[in-house]
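Incident log, support desk, overnight shift.

02:14 A customer reports that sequence design results differ from what the structure should imply. Their input is reproduced verbatim below. On-call engineer (initials T.W.) acknowledged and began investigating.
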């Protein structure tokens, strides 16, 4: 529409703390901390805030108070963020994070949202990997978009009474198993993985043969995926993706890089070696 949309950030417990300015505009960022706000990231990426207008505590809720104000002087927001050139970006909620067996934290919401922007027939991507060496995913396709894509790309579904024109669930299930559809999903995952760190990449996947639904409690009333419920419902299906050799219906993502997670000791890393420090010039504050 030709209008810049400036995002900000604030909590009931901490008022407004960040704001994007039009003279320093970047899409998708909540901007810089306001004057008087000390913002930093915890080791797991949680956004911590200190200001004179932070809450003092919850009324008659000492346990909740201790969780948000553990005594380090900062309010723990429960939001996961990253910082780029001084700009803050919110990527996920802390309660959504999971940790791989290699000690890497993964924020699933950002990965799943990115995939939906890259795959025009995707309804959801449910990532999974708590305690595993790598991430796998369950791809959920959107029925109408998949039907339109199949028609546009000459994909005909036959057998088991699943004619592509009848609009039945059997027809849609057959589409999700079609080699051309699988290949297209692989290509979309390859594009996704190019933008991710190695430990965030979706190495293997399977495609669900139906949409998620509110009736099955897999979606909220606002059509957001209930990730924990989906993980519990399809736990066996997720775990099966890790089997070697791959079971029928499970696939490697195209273009993934399989590398060792062995890392050099921090003291051996040249960037962290005092003799090789790169001193960046201080940015002039506006």
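02:41 Re-run completed on a clean worker. Output:
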């Amino acid at each position: 529409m030709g209008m810049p949309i400036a995002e900000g950030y604030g909590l009931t417990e901490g008022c407004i703390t960040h704001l994007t300015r039009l003279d320093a505009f970047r899409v998708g960022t909540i901007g810089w901390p306001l004057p008087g706000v000390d913002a930093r990231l915890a080791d797991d990426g949680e956004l911590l805030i200190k200001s004179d207008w932070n809450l003092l505590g919850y009324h008659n809720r000492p346990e909740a108070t201790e969780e948000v104000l553990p005594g380090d002087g900062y309010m723990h927001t429960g939001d996961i963020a990253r910082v780029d050139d001084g700009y803050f970006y919110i990527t996920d909620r802390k309660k959504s994070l999971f940790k791989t067996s290699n000690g890497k934290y993964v924020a699933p919401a950002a990965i799943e949202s990115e995939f939906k922007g890259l795959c025009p027939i995707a309804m959801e991507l449910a990532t999974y990997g708590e305690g595993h060496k790598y991430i796998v995913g369950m791809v959920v396709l959107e029925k109408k978009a998949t039907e339109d894509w199949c028609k546009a790309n000459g994909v005909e579904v036959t057998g088991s009474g699943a004619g592509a024109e009848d609009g039945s669930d059997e027809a849609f299930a057959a589409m999700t198993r079609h080699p051309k559809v699988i290949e297209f999903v692989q290509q979309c995952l390859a594009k996704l993985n190019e933008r991710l760190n190695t430990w965030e990449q979706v190495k293997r996947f399977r495609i669900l043969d139906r949409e998620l639904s509110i009736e099955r409690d897999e979606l909220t009333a606002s059509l957001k995926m209930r990730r924990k419920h989906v993980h519990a419902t399809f736990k066996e299906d997720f775990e099966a993706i890790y089997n070697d050799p791959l079971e029928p219906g499970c696939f490697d993502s195209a273009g993934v890089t399989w590398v060792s997670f062995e890392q050099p000791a921090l003291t051996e890393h040249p960037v962290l070696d005092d003799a090789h420090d790169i001193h960046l010039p201080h940015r002039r504050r506006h």
